[in-house]
TrEMBL record:
Residues 17-467 form the Major facilitator superfamily (MFS) profile domain. It comes from Nocardioides panaciterrulae. The lineage of its organism: Bacteria, Bacillati, Actinomycetota, Actinomycetes, Propionibacteriales. Pfam families: MFS_1. It is found in: Cell membrane. InterPro entries: MFS, MFS_dom, MFS_trans_sf. This is EmrB/QacA subfamily drug resistance transporter. Its main location: membrane. Keywords: Cell membrane, Membrane, Transmembrane, Transmembrane helix, Transport.
C-alpha cells in the first residue's frame, strides 16, 4: 500500500473535479481521431507523400503507447493532479506546434509531444478513485472511459466540416483551447492526490517498456507498407520478442518496479487485459475502416460513395449510443456486476460485427449495426476500466489502468494492420478493394469479439483491500458509508 498523506484542506466538490477531468479526456480523444480522415489534405498542403504522412498517426500512436502507463505510474508516485497538469500542458504545446507546423517533420514531432497526453485516462481514473464517494466511482469511471470512444466518433464527424469551413490547422487550434482551459482548471480546482506510492521512478524499466512497445507497434503499423517479410519488420518483431521478457524479468527483480508484475498477475487484471487486447482489435479497427467502407464509390457494387463529412454523420448514432452506454454502465454494474456488463458488451460487439458481415447492402443496415456496436463499446469500455480499478490497490490505480488502456492500443494496432492486409488481399482494376475483403475483415472481428466475450465470462471478480485516507474525504465516507470503511480482501 502507498504512503498516507494527511489531507486537512477543504477539497473541491467532486462534481467540479469531474467536469475538469471530462474536458481533458474529451480533448485528448478528439486529437486521436480528428486527424485520421484528413491525411490526404495534410499530404497535399505540406507537399509530402502518403508513406511520410502516415507518420502523423504513427508518431502519436507510439508516443501515447509509451507515455500512458509511465505517466500513470509517475502520477501514483508524485501526485496525479500535478501530472494531469503536465499532460494538459503537453497536449497544448503539441497542438500549438502542430497548428503552426511549416513542414511535415515539425508536424510529426508535434504529434509525438501530443502523445504524452495519453496519460490523461489513467490519471483520471486515479483521481476519481481518490476523490469521489464510493458509490459514484463506477459511474464516473464508466462515463470518462466512454468519453474516449465518444471522442473518436465525434472527431470523425467534425473533421470534414472543420477543414471545409476553416482549414486543417483548426483540427489543432480547437483542441488546444480545450486542453489549455482543462490544464488551468486542473491546476486551480483539482485537489492533489491524498494517496502516494513511495519509492523512486525506475528509469531502466521505463526505457525497456518503451523499447519493446515501440519495436512491436512500429513493426505492426508499418508492416503493410514495408512488407511483412521485410528485414526491417522482422527485425523489429525479433527485437520486441527479446525486450519484452527482459522487461518482465527486470520489473520482477526490481525493488521499485514501474509496473508491478505481482499486480499484473492478479487474475482479474490479466484476464481483463486479455479482453482489452481482443476488444481493441475490433473497436479501433471499426473506427479506421467503417468510414473508408462508407466512402467507397457505389460503382463497386457495395460502397455508398458518401463524403468524409457524410460518413461521419452516419456514424453519429454510434457515438451517441457509446455515450449513453457509458452513462448507464455504472447503474448496470451496480445491479448486475461489472463482469456481466463486460460480457454483454463483448457479446453485443460480436452480434454487431456479424450483422455487418451478413448484411451491409443498405445504409439503414449499416447505421443500425454500428449503433449497436456503439452501445457495446460503451458498456465494455466502462466495465473493463471498473474491473481493473476495483481489483488493484488504490496506490496502483494509475499504472494498472494505464497498462489496460495501453493493451487496448496494442490490440488496435494489431487489428488495424491485420484488417488492412485482409481488406486489400483482393484489389479491383480501379485500385479499390473487392467486397469480399471487407466481408472477410468483418468476419475476423466477429471471431475476436466472440473470443473476448468468452474470456470475459471467466473473469474472476475480486476487489482489492482499500484503506481510507485521513481527511475530509474519509469523513464523507465514514458519514455516508460506514459499512464500506474497509472492503474485504479478495
Amino acid at each position: 500500500m502507498g504512503a498516507h498523506t494527511l489531507v486537512t484542506e477543504r477539497r473541491t466538490d467532486y462534481r467540479v473535479t469531474f467536469v475538469v477531468l471530462c474536458l481533458g479526456v474529451a480533448s485528448f480523444s478528439l486529437l486521436q481521431s480528428m486527424v485520421n480522415p484528413v491525411l490526404p489534405t495534410i499530404e497535399q498542403a505540406l507537399d509530402t507523400d502518403q508513406e511520410t504522412v502516415t507518420w502523423v498517426l504513427t508518431a502519436y500512436l507510439l508516443s501515447a503507447s509509451v507515455f500512458t502507463p509511465i505517466v500513470g505510474r509517475v502520477g501514483d508516485k508524485v501526485g496525479k493532479e500535478r501530472m494531469l497538469v503536465v499532460t494538459m500542458a503537453a497536449l497544448t504545446i503539441g497542438s500549438l506546434v502542430a497548428a503552426l507546423a511549416p513542414t511535415i517533420g515539425v508536424l510529426i514531432v508535434a504529434r509525438a509531444v501530443q502523445g504524452i497526453g495519453g496519460g490523461v485516462l489513467p490519471l483520471t481514473f486515479g483521481i476519481i478513485r481518490d476523490e469521489f464517494p464510493r458509490e459514484k466511482v463506477s459511474g464516473a469511471v464508466g462515463t470518462s472511459a466512454a468519453l474516449l470512444a465518444v471522442g473518436g466518433g465525434v472527431g470523425l464527424v467534425l473533421a470534414g466540416p472543420v477543414v471545409n469551413a476553416l482549414s486543417y490547422h483548426w483540427l489543432f487550434w480547437l483542441p488546444m483551447v480545450m486542453t489549455l482551459v482543462a490544464g488551468v482548471a486542473a491546476a486551480v480546482w483539482v485537489p492533489e492526490s491524498p494517496e502516494r506510492t513511495p519509492g523512486r521512478i525506475n528509469v531502466g524499466t521505463a526505457l525497456l517498456l518503451s523499447a519493446w512497445l515501440v519495436a512491436l507497434l512500429l513493426g505492426v503499423s508499418q508492416g503493410h507498407t514495408w512488407g511483412w517479410t521485410s528485414g526491417r519488420v522482422l527485425g523489429l518483431f525479433v527485437l520486441a520478442a527479446v525486450l519484452l521478457p527482459a522487461w518482465v524479468l527486470a520489473e520482477a527483480r526490481s525493488d521499485h518496479p514501474l509496473v508491478d508484475m505481482t499486480m499484473m498477475r492478479i487474475p482479474t487484471v490479466w484476464t481483463v487485459n486479455l479482453v482489452a487486447l481482443l476488444f481493441g482489435i475490433g473497436m479501433y479497427s471499426m473506427f479506421a475502416f467503417l468510414p473508408q467502407f462508407l466512402q467507397t464509390p457505389d460503382v463497386t457494387g457495395y460502397g455508398f460513395g458518401v463524403s468524409v463529412t457524410e460518413s461521419g454523420l452516419l456514424l453519429l448514432p454510434q457515438t451517441a449510443a457509446t455515450f449513453v452506454a457509458g452513462i448507464i454502465s455504472g447503474a448496470l454494474a451496480h445491479r448486475f456486476g461489472a463482469k456481466a456488463v463486460l460480457v454483454a458488451g463483448s457479446a453485443l460487439t460480436a452480434v454487431g460485427t456479424l450483422g455487418l458481415t451478413l448484411a451491409h447492402g443498405a445504409l439503414w443496415q449499416v447505421v443500425a449495426e454500428t449503433t449497436l456496436l456503439g452501445l457495446a463499446f460503451g458498456l465494455a469500455f466502462a466495465a473493463m476500466s471498473n474491473l481493473v480499478v476495483d481489483a488493484v490497490p488504490q496506490s496502483q490505480t494509475g499504472v494498472a489502468s494505464g497498462m489496460n488502456a495501453n493493451i487496448r492500443t496494442v490490440g488496435g494496432a494489431i487489428g488495424g494492420a491485420v484488417l488492412a492486409s485482409v481488406i486489400t488481399a483482393g484489389i479491383r482494376p480501379d485500385g479499390l478493394p473487392v467486397e469480399s475483403g471487407y466481408t472477410n475483415a468483418f468476419g475476423v472481428l466477429v471471431a475476436t469479439s466472440a473470443l473476448a466475450a468468452l474470456v470475459a465470462a471467466f473473469v474472476p471478480v475480486i476487489r482489492a483491500r482499500t484503506h481510507v485516507v485521513p481527511g475530509p474525504q474519509a469523513a464523507w465516507e465514514a458519514e455516508h458509508h460506514p459499512e464500506a470503511a474497509d472492503t474485504a480482501a479478495h
